[in-house]
Amino acid sequence: MIWLAWRQFRAQAAVGAGTLLVVIVVGITSRWRLDGLYASSGIAHCAARGDCAAKTSSFLNQVNGSLLNHLPLLLGTVLVAVPAVISMFWGAPVISSELDTGTYRLAWTQSVTRSRWLSLKLGLVGFGGLGVAAAFSWTVTWSADPIDQMSLGRILPATFSERGIVPVGYAAFGVAFAVAAGTLIRRPIATMGVTLAVLTAAEVVARWIRPHLMSPVRTLLPISPGDISGIGIHMLRSGTGVLNLTGTVSTAGRWVLANQIVNAAHQPVNGIPLSATGPLSVQSCALSRALSCLPYVAQHGYQELVTYQPASRFWDLQVRETAIFLGLALALTVFSFWRIRRLS
Amino acid sequence: MCKGLGASKLPAVSDTSTVLPSTDDLTVPAVEARELSRRFGSRWALTDCTLTIPPGRVTGLVGQNGAGKTTLLHLAVGLLRPTSGTITVFGQRPGARPSQLAKVGFVAQDRPLYAGLSVADHLRLGAHLNPAWDARLATRRVERLALDPGQQARSLSGGQRAQLALTLAISKRPQLLILDEPVASLDPLARRDFLQDLAEAVAEHPLSVVLSSHLVADLASVCNYLIVLGTGQIRVAGDMSELLATHYILTRSRRQGHAAVPAGLTVVHAWRLKNATKVLVRAGEPVSASGWRVSRPSLDDLVVSYMRQAPGRSRRDDNVLEESQ
Fold first, then answer.
1. Which domain does B288 fall in, by range?
2. Which of B240, B274, B293 is where one domain is finished?
3. Which residues of B touch A108 (CB under 8 A)?
4. How many domains does chain B have?
5. Which of A115, A185, B180, B309 is the most exposed place for a label (fewest CB within 10 A)?
């Protein structure tokens, strides 16, 4: 049976292995380039000279300015599609094409039970798919590491699902779903379509659930010009007004989920009331001098409440999200084995 | 007459239940169905079929398209599960275990093969998936049939597909070979070759065979057991020679007017010709009926009569004539 499973899979496996080889070669050479760039950038000794910000921004400019330096990030973008491609082209046909072409009547009347047939087919395709996703993701994670360390961080939604072990969880879920869906839909093309839709939806839902996988850190910060990215003043007819402050959303090393202005009672406020005269007034906080009125805002007990996931939680979140998808994959696989024995 | 036997000579019921029949025992039926029914959605493809096919027979399963032949065969190989009732093959539930699967060779109706796999690949498939695979037999058959081992299945002709599928099923060395419409899509020459080849294979390796067809002529040459299926029910089943020996055609000219069929005969079917009435009857003993000309039916007469029988009609019905043109 292993022979048949491999014989049916080997062409797809060759395409997968070939693609993976190209990706690994690109990843390794890109990492070498980035290491060279890092060494010549002088970032390693910037702390002593106090020009880290300048060195870092010059390093990132060089990354963004050159396609070759940018390749690890492009590989990461491609990686987003890898679980879907594996699920659609490897997972979906496993049962659906046998049912569609009628060859199940050949395969399931040999001296091999359906359960054994499925365990070997699914074993080969499933672990093959997980292997490709893992190797691809490791290549991206490793080759993009110099960039991730310099930029805002890989915990942010834009990069989180393109790094680490999460792509393996998506691939496991996708393949298991595609196989299970094939037992119900019985047509390869339709199964592929449904697989793509469900996997896309699952990744969207994952992004929505991710902040809640660990309860976020909440920190109160004093209001200071460095943390404020936007100021607005709303004048009222009575001569008073409302000051609207927007906290900085992206902070290096943090995935900021919310940044609110709270009053002395730590309750979020929509705007800070300004009186007609006095320190915290329409006059003193007029737009041209707005920054200078921030100390008065702080004196009134207003603070910034930042809700975030720290960068150190990257792997904790990765493990939790992957575990959820592996659990779903396991449940779908159990369903497939139950279903294939009852197909008739 | 069983009453005459002393009860002491019979084993107690509790004893018989512990004696399990050996599957290689020639007395275990190749196929046994009890009140077997199968429904697809709201349509019943098979209703209350009770049937025993003794081992060692070459059984012809005839019926019109849609009579339930494929359903019955798929139930026998375990591709379908019964909606109600039971079916066993050599005493075991079909498809339940590898050892049971190994006993049954199956060729499905449209001979499914893997389009991208070559003839040689299919033989390798057979060798890897069947512990009792007879590689010499498979190679010999492929050589004799002049199949190119490197040719992909998608480019084989209908006859070649049929032969390759049969080779896979036979080389598995099953005890029961089930063929669903094996010759339906073959031209007359390929059909003759296929049936001859099958007959030779059966002669070479004794095994039970069940093959379905909607053409009676295909069966006469190879079969010695007959099952007629009509609208999901078994119309008649039995040894072909015995069936032919216990059926008679009664013919009466129209000019002679109406006459009842003699009592004690079971009417299978009656049909009216331009100037005569014909009745196919079943009788245990030679028939003499005054006013009727008695003749022997052909296999074709027998099968067609049972196929035309009204659905649900009991064979033990009284002698009411049901006529068709």
1. 246-324
2. B240
3. 78-79, 95
4. 2
5. A115
The answer on B214 and B85 residing in a single domain is yes
- Mean pLDDT, chain B, integer: 85
**CB under 8 Å, gap of 24 or more: what pairs does B197-200 form?**
B197/B163, B197/B166, B198/B166, B198/B222
Report if residue A306 sits inside a domain. no
The residue in chain B having the minimum alpha-carbon distance to the alpha carbon of residue A2 is B128
Residue A335 lies in a domain: yes
Phi, psi of A141 (to 5 degrees): -60, -40
A276 and A153 belong to one structural domain: no
**Does residue B315 contact residue B233 with C-beta atoms inside 8 Å?**
no
B164 lies in the same domain as B263: no
Q: How far is CA B318 from the centre of its chain?
A: 28
Q: Please report the ipTM that was assigned to this predicted complex.
A: 0.85
**Distance, first Cα to last Cα, chain A:** 22
φ, ψ at A219 (rounded to 5°): -130, 135
Decide if B9 is inside a domain: no
Same domain, A103 and A47: yes
Q: Are residues A83 and A200 in the same domain?
A: yes
Contact A1 B129 (CB under 8 A): yes
- Using CB atoms, which residue from A110, A114, A344 is nearest to B129? A110
CA separation for the pair B170, B40 (Å, rounded): 31
One domain for residues B228 and B252? no
Q: B277 and B254 in contact (C-beta within 8 Å)?
A: yes
- Write out pLDDT tens, residues B262-293: 877 888 998 888 888 899 999 888 888 778 89
State whether B104 and A116 contact (CB < 8 Å): no
DSSP result, B48-71: EEEEEE-TT-EEEEE--TTSSHHH
Q: What is the pLDDT of residue B24?
A: 52
CB < 8 Å to A105, chain B: 74, 79, 106, 108, 112
Of B194, B212, B240, the position where a domain reaches its end is: B240
- Chain A: residue nearest B126 by CA? A110
Q: What tens digit of pLDDT does each residue of A52-81 get? A: 888 888 899 888 888 888 899 999 999 999
Residue B264: half-sphere exposure toward Cβ, Cα within 13 Å: 8
Contact flag B114-A105 (C-beta cutoff 8 Å): no
B106/A109 CB distance under 8 A: yes
Residue A319 CA to residue A313 CA, distance in Å, equals 10
Q: Does residue B6 lie in a domain region?
A: no
In the block, residue with structure tokens 């084995």: A337
User: B49 with B194, same domain?
Assistant: yes
| Per-residue buried b or exposed e for A27-54, using 16+ beta carbons within 10 Å of the residue's own CB | beebbebbeebbeebebeebeeeeeeee
Q: Which residues of A touch B (CB under 8 A)?
A: 1-4, 7-8, 101-106, 108-114, 116, 342, 344
pTM of this structure: 0.87
d(CA A242, CA B303) in angstroms, rounded, equals: 97
